[in-house]
């Protein structure tokens, strides 16, 4: 069966695609930039990649599509008009998919049973209506909090529980919700294919427990073997709550605002016969947390929300930054002979995250803290995997533009708050490591910034290259 997948580089799609391949489907995966094709899918003969931006009108999709997954969301976007963006994407997708032989569109939405909805849930519900068509059927699954390694909600809860023995929290922690495990979400999505009884239907999917966010935190702590005290206060405004999440967890401020807006709304699912149709019994919250940590322990996190472009400064076309400019730039260029290319390359591929930056790590931490104070991403994102890198990954406050072990080259772009643009490149050529830090200033402020941090370069960059070639 020929299946179209949108949102290919997103959290859900990266986990969905391997399951569809196991079931012997042929896939057409949509990406906005072919340079961001996930490495694990790049050479698969069962996948055709289509470069397409649904914000713009396109000519056509392959005509032989049988089923399509619509997995495009804008939860973390910095745009104040995300609702309009999501509507535009949905309209353009609808027009294109209507020209194919597609019989079923499967859409993952949010539970919308409360009388008052957040802006994001209103937008998701609006997209449901836009996707309806007489040319194909739509199967909508509405989920609340998704529990899985790498999901935004999971990582935020993890940050809170592991960092704070005592929490002074907003009153919305008493809001009720029905969390669902990522494995169950994927089962619903994959088993719904061509089930006639699900055509043109919307189904709430949820776990077996109704929990408050406070209970979720406490149960998470219990699974991890921690004792935590949580005190809720009615005085924290939505904006203060957003700042609270932003500074304590690894979330971006835009995502924090969206989450606070949504967490004030009860997310309780409506009963239906969906579990009988799909033949599934969703697992409990504690089991979902335990299974997530088994994946983390095995270093087998397939996808993470932190690697989405919207978790940093990029929105699209980030690969135009791969060609590092030379005119009007300040540079710190160093080189060192390498005794073992393989060993040095392995150290480069482990940089950042828990490994740190090899020398004067406290200076990197200070820079990350300053960045966070000014609304940047700071060092909180860490990295998805301890020793693997792929194009598009986040490493602390950097974004991987290129990770090519055959070329022995790693290129990073800075997503910290800067009066300019910055690149950091590592490249091994003929047993010699070349390390380049490039900064393109914006105006006088950029030039002042460069000369202000210049004294630290002698320690940081010199120390880093010396450690890498050891």
Question: Could you please describe the fold and organization of this structure?
Answer:
- The structure is a single chain.
- A hairpin with a 3-residue loop joins strand 18 (420-428) and strand 19.
- It contains 13 helices and 19 strands.
- It has two domains: 2-306, 3-Layer(aba) Sandwich (Rossmann fold), CATH 3.40.50; 324-468, 2-Layer Sandwich (Alpha-D-Glucose-1,6-Bisphosphate, Chain A, domain 4), CATH 3.30.530.
- The strands form five sheets. A seven-stranded parallel β-sheet has the order 3-2-1-4-5-6-11, with helices on both faces. A six-stranded antiparallel β-sheet has the order 14-19-18-17-16-15, with helices on one face. The protein has a two-stranded parallel ribbon with strand order 7-10.
- It has helices at 11-22, 82-97, 119-131, 152-163, 182-191, 213-224, 238-248, 253-263, 274-278, 285-297, 341-348, 361-373, 443-468, and strands at 2-5, 26-31, 47-51, 67-70, 104-110, 137-143, 146-147, 166-170, 176-177, 180-181, 201-205, 211-212, 229-233, 330-337, 394-395, 398-404, 409-414, 420-428, 432-441.
- The N and C termini lie far apart (52 Å).
List keywords for this structure.
13 helices, six-stranded antiparallel beta sheet, Rossmann fold, 2 domains, Alpha-D-Glucose-1,6-Bisphosphate, Chain A, domain 4, 19 strands, seven-stranded parallel beta sheet, alpha/beta, 21% strand, 470 residues
């Amino acid at each position: 069966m020929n299946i179209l997948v949108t949102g290919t580089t997103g959290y859900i799609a990266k986990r969905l695609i391997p399951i569809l391949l196991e079931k012997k489907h042929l896939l057409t995966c949509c990406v906005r930039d072919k340079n961001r094709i996930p490495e694990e899918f790049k050479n698969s003969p069962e996948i055709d990649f289509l470069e397409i931006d649904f914000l713009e009108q396109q000519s056509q999709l392959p005509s032989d599509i049988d089923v399509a997954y619509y997995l495009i969301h804008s939860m973390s976007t910095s745009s104040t008009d995300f609702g309009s963006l999501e509507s535009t994407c949905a309209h353009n997708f609808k027009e294109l998919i209507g020209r194919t032989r597609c019989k079923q569109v499967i859409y993952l939405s949010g539970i919308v049973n409360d009388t008052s909805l957040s802006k994001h849930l209103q937008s998701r519900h609006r997209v449901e209506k836009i996707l309806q068509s007489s040319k194909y059927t739509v199967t909508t699954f509405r989920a609340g909090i998704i529990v899985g390694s790498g999901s935004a909600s999971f990582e935020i809860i993890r940050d809170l529980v592991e960092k704070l023995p005592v929490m002074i929290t907003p009153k919305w922690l008493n809001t009720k919700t029905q969390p669902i495990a990522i494995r169950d979400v994927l089962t619903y999505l994959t088993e719904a294919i061509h089930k006639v009884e699900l055509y043109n239907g919307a189904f709430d999917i949820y776990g077996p427990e109704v929990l408050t966010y406070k209970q979720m935190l406490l149960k998470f702590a219990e699974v991890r073997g921690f004792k935590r005290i949580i005190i809720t206060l009615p005085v924290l405004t939505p904006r203060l709550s957003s700042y609270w999440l932003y500074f304590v967890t690894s979330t971006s401020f835009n995502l924090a605002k969206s989450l606070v807006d949504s967490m004030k709304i009860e997310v309780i699912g409506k009963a239906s016969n969906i579990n009988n149709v799909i033949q599934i019994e969703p697992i409990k919250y504690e089991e979902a947390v335990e299974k997530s940590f088994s994946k983390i322990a095995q270093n087998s996190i397939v996808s993470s929300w932190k690697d989405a472009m919207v978790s940093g400064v990029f929105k699209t076309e980030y690969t135009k930054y791969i060609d590092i400019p030379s005119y009007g730039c300040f540079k710190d260029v160093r080189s060192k002979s390498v005794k073992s290319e393989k060993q040095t390359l392995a150290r480069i591929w482990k940089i950042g995250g828990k490994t740190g930056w090899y020398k004067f790590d406290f200076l990197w931490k200070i820079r990350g803290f300053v960045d966070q104070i000014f609304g940047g991403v700071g060092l909180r994102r860490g990295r998805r995997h301890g020793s693997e890198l792929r194009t598009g990954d986040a490493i602390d406050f950097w974004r991987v533009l290129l990770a090519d072990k055959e070329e022995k080259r790693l290129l990073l772009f800075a997503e910290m708050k800067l009066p300019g643009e910055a690149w950091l490149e590592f490249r091994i050529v003929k047993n010699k490591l070349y390390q380049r830090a490039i900064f393109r200033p914006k105006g006088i402020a950029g030039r002042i910034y460069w000369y202000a941090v210049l004294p630290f370069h002698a320690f940081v960059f010199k120390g880093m290259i010396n450690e890498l070639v050891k």
